[in-house]
């Protein structure tokens, strides 16, 4: 693990860690952190969600995605409005908004 590259990555990583605990519970989140490099979400959010979907369940992955996006939108001063965009697209848009 190389560590987050910028402040948005740090926020994203901490948001994912918190959402894992909220959605899956502390024990499952801890087990996932052992087997899954959470930093994958920084470079390839869609692959990260597919992996979580495979390991836990597709339903939990969707809930996790929604929770992460709600929290990130809140941190950057907007309200999350669910849509059919890929996780990577939503993250890229938030990353761009954070840079401005």
Distance between the termini: 27 Å
- Give the C-level CATH assignment: Mainly Alpha
Please state the oligomeric state of the protein chains shown: single chain
Helix content: over 70%
Give an account of the 3D structure:
With 100 residues, the chain is mostly helical. 74% of the residues lie in helices and 0% in strands.
Which key phrases capture this entry?
Non-ribosomal Peptide Synthetase Peptidyl Carrier Protein, Chain A; mainly alpha; 74% helix; 100 residues; globular; 0% strand; 6 helices
Summarize the structure.
The chain has 100 residues and is mainly alpha-helical. It is 74% helix and 0% strand.
List the topology elements:
Layout: H1 7-24, H2 26-35, H3 40-43, H4 45-55, H5 58-75, H6 87-99
Helix pairs in contact: 1-2, 1-5, 4-5, 5-6
């Amino acid at each position: 693990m190389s560590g987050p590259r910028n402040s948005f990555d740090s926020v994203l990583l901490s948001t994912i860690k918190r959402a894992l605990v909220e959605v899956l519970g502390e024990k499952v989140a801890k087990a996932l952190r052992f087997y899954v490099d959470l930093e994958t979400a920084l470079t390839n959010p869609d692959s990260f969600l597919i992996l979580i979907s495979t390991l836990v369940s597709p339903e939990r992955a969707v809930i996790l995605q929604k929770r992460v996006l709600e929290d990130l939108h809140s941190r950057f001063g907007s309200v999350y409005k669910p849509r059919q965009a890929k996780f990577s697209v939503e993250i890229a848009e938030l990353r761009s908004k954070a840079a401005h």
